[in-house]
Design goal:
- This protein has 107 residues and is mostly loops.
- The chain has one helix and four strands, in the order E-E-H-E-E.
- The strands form two sheets. It has a two-stranded antiparallel sheet. Strands 3-4 form a two-stranded antiparallel ribbon.
- It starts with a strand and ends in an 11-residue tail after the last strand.
């Protein structure tokens, strides 16, 4: 039962103060590093997207605690970091937004 508290906020607290089971969906971001061969950063991101999303997520999230009932990908990309193999000093590394557009001032 949902009640309205004196401050106007909805409250679903149980009157007797007893605990109830809650299912909380935590939308956590995961980082997936993908090795691809591409001619430039843009095609590298596109290839990585294709590998990850074309046939469902290519990574399985396995709950490791009894209280975690399920884990699945939230289908949201918040950004990219593209590193080039052999660039051990990360001179050619670049951050991109979810739209594949460069972030920061290194355009």
């Amino acid at each position: 039962m949902t009640a309205i508290a004196p401050d106007g906020q909805a409250s679903d607290a149980v009157a007797d103060g007893a605990s109830r089971r809650h299912f909380v969906h935590v939308y956590a971001v995961i980082r997936v590093k993908v090795a691809v061969d591409a001619r430039d950063h843009h095609s590298a991101m596109k290839t990585a997207d294709d590998l990850l999303f074309a046939n469902g997520l290519a990574v399985r999230l396995v709950p490791a605690a009894q209280t975690v009932l399920e884990a699945e990908y939230a289908e949201e990309v918040t950004g990219y970091l593209v590193d080039e193999a052999g660039d051990d000093e990360f001179v050619r590394s670049r951050s991109y937004g979810p739209d594949h557009e460069p972030e920061g001032d290194g355009a």
